[in-house]
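I am still learning, so can you show me any protein sequence you like together with the matching C-alpha cells, please?
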Amino acid sequence: MRKGAKLRVDRNLRRTETLAEKRLWEQLRNRTLDGLKFVRQAPFGPDVIDFLNREHQFIIETDGATHSTDAEVIYDSRRTAFLAVESYRVIRFQNDEILNGMDEVLTLIIDVLQNLPRPQNGRGQGPGAKRWER
C-alpha cells in the first residue's frame, strides 16, 4: 500500500473510531497520562495499531463486539504474537472495560509500563521500528 493510501486509511479510522477509543484517546493524548507519549491509529505492517507508545514499544488495542468470533480471536492472537516477536508488548481492553472502568484501565496501563524493561537502545526504536511508515 502506498504511503498516501495509508494516510487516508488512518484518517478514516480516526473518523470512525468507537466511543471507547475516543474516551481512551482523551486520557492518552498530549502526554496527559503520566507524561507518556502515545499516538493513535499508527500503521504497522499491514495493520493499524489503536494506540502506541514508541518509547516503551507498548501497544494498546481496544476490542469491541467485532472481536468475539473464533476467527477474530485467532486473528488477534496471531497479531499479538507477531508484535511480540517484533519486541512490542500488547495489552487489550474490551470497549466495556474502557467505558465502565476508565480509572482501572489507566491504572493498569501505568502499572504495566512501569514494569516493562526499556528497549535495548533506549530510544524506542527496536526491531519493529523499521516497519513504521510515518
